[in-house]
Each structure stands twice: as C-alpha cells, then as structure tokens.
Specification:
This protein is of the alpha+beta class and 73 residues long. The chain has a domain of 42 residues. 25% of the residues lie in helices and 22% in strands. The chain contains 1 helix and 3 strands; from the N terminus they run βββα. A 3-stranded antiparallel beta sheet has the order 1-2-3, covered by helices on one side. β1 and β2 form a beta hairpin. The longest helix is centred in the middle third of the chain and has 18 residues. The mean pLDDT is 89.
Length: 73
C-alpha cells in the first residue's frame, strides 16, 4: 500500500481534491466525499498507468504576490 497526498480546497459549493504525486483530481460536496472520490479516481488511474516511482515526501511551500488595488483577492 502506498500513502499519497491530497490537497483539498473549496470552490463555490464543492470541495476539490488533488493528488500532486499522480495528478488526479476529483470533487465532492463534503471533504470526505471529495477524498473518497479522489481515492477511487487515483486507484482507477494507477490500474491503467502504474507508477514507476513516486515522491512520497511532497514539499509544500507558500509564496506572496501583490494584488493590484481594486482587484478582489
């Protein structure tokens, strides 16, 4: 069994879940649903396209950008 990373964010009324190591994306109305759908999508993807190597230690970084005045952040 391989442990992968999920990045989850809210977009309007859905939660979007992404797996950065594989590139799969799914969604759901709850975090749990989005994660379950991502797990299913990733499993199906890996059945068709097995990974040769996976980075199990993703690096998460933050950065700043300037937003022009009058542009919603």
């Amino acid at each position: 069994m391989t442990v992968l990373t999920a990045v989850i964010y809210k977009e309007e009324d859905l939660f979007i879940a992404q797996c950065p190591q594989v590139g799969t994306v799914s969604q759901g109305h709850t975090i749990e649903e989005a994660l379950a759908n991502l797990k299913e999508a990733t499993t199906l993807y890996l059945e068709e396209f097995p990974l040769k190597e996976v980075s199990l230690s993703p690096l998460l970084a933050t950065f700043e950008v300037e937003v022009a005045a009058g542009v919603p952040a």
